[in-house]
Amino acid sequence: MFHLSAATAGVVAAVGAVGAVATAPRAALAQTIDPSKSKLQEVLKRGKLIVGTGSTNPPWHFEDRSGKLVGMDIDLSRLLAKNLFDDYEKVEYVIQGSDARIPSLVTNKVDIVVQWMTITPGRAQQVEFTIPYYREGVGLMMMAGGKYKTFQEVKAAGKSAKIGAMQNVFIEEWVHKALPEAGVDQFDSPDTTLQALNARRIDAYLGDQSAIRWLMQQFPNRYVEGGYGWMPNSYASAVRPGDPIWLNWVNTVYKEAMMGVDFDYFAASYKKWFGLELPTPKVGFPQEFV
Questions:
Q1: Of 33, 136, 140, 181, which is most buried by a Cβ count within 10 Å?
Q2: Cβ contact 115:52 at 8 Å
Q3: Is the pLDDT of residue 115 over 90?
Q4: What is the pLDDT of residues 72-111, one digit of tens each?
C-alpha cells in the first residue's frame, strides 16, 4: 500500500493495448476458448512459466543475501511451476515495477502477475484476478519496551500519541480513520520511520501489516504489534482476460494450497514470511462452504 514504483520501460507502448482491453465488451472477453488455445497449453508446451513480479519489497518479493529472489510471491510462483511441471525451478521471472503489471499481461509479456497486486474494480476491467491469497491492511508497531503496547493504549492516549509513517498526501487521513486524535510525523521512507521508532522519537510505526510482521520476524522481541488493522485490501494474482481455463487452473492450485493437498507448503510460507500459524483445514465437509 505504501510502495510506489518508478515508471518502467515499455509501459507507454502498452497504454493503447490496456485501453483496448478496458473498453472491450466483457461478454466477448468471457467467451469460452478452444482448450488447445489456452495459456495453460501454451505454458505446458513451452516448458516453463513466465511470471511478472518485483524484487524490492520484502516479504513479498526481494533478493536475499545471496542474490536469490525470495518471498511469498516467489513461493506461490514456484508452487505453480511445481504443479505444472513437477519442478519448482521451471519459472522465469520478469522483474518489473508495479506500474508495469497490467501492461505486461495485456501485451502477453508474462503468463501471470504474482506481485502483491491489490484487487480493485477498476483493475478488474483490465485483468482477471485469481482468488486472493492475503488480506492486507495497515497497523501499528511499537517498541517492546515502549510507552504503549497495544492499539487501544495508543488510541486512549489521544493527542499524546505520536504516529510515524512514510510521507503520503493521504497519510494523516489514513491514521485518523482509526486514531482521530493522534499526532502524525511523516518520513521520506520506511527505513527513516523505523529509525525514528527505534530512537523513541515516535510512539508507533504505521505500516502495512505484512511489512510489520516481517520486521518482527527479523528482530525478535524488539517490537510488538498493536493487535488491530484497518483499511483492508486483498492481494491476488492476475492473468490476461478471456481465458477461463487458465484462470480456473491457477485458482485450483491456490485453493488447494489454502485448503487441500498443498496446505503444508502454503502454511510454511505464511510462517516464514509473516510469523503466522495457519490452522489446519478441518477434515469432513469443506469448511469454505459452511
A1: 140
A2: yes
A3: yes
A4: 999 999 999 999 999 999 999 999 999 999 999 999 999 9
Measured N-to-C along each axis, helices 244-259 and 39-46 cross at an angle, to the nearest 10 degrees, of 80
Q: Which long-range contacts (CB under 8 A, 24 or more apart) does 22-30 make?
A: 22/125, 22/126, 24/241, 28/242, 29/241, 29/242, 30/242, 30/244
The rounded mean pLDDT for the chain is 90
| Among candidate residues 125, 123, 155, the one with its CA nearest the CA of residue 139 | 155
| β-strand partners of 174 | none
- Nine-digit cell string for 156: 486512549
Helix H, strand E, coil C: the string for the chain is CCCCCCCCCCHHHHHHHHHHHHHCCHHHHCCCCCHHHCHHHHHHHHCCEEEEECCEECCCEEECCCCCEECHHHHHHHHHHHHHHCCCCCEEEEECCHHHHHHHHHCCCCCEEEEEEECCCCHHHCCEECCCCEEEEEEEEEECCCCCCCHHHHHHHHHHCEEEEECCCCHHHHHHHHCCCCEEEEECCHHHHHHHHHCCCCCEEEEEHHHHHHHHHHCCCCEEEEEEEEEEEEEEEEECCCCHHHHHHHHHHHHHHHHCCCHHHHHHHHHHHHCCCCCCCCCCCCHHHC
Q: What's this model's pTM, rounded to 2 decimal places?
A: 0.85
Q: Please, what is the Cα angle at 222 between 161 and 167, to 5 degrees?
A: 45
- CA dihedral 117→13→127→211, nearest 10 degrees, is 0
Chain centre distance of CA 187: 23
Q: Is the peptide bond before 59 cis (omega within 30 degrees of 0)?
A: yes
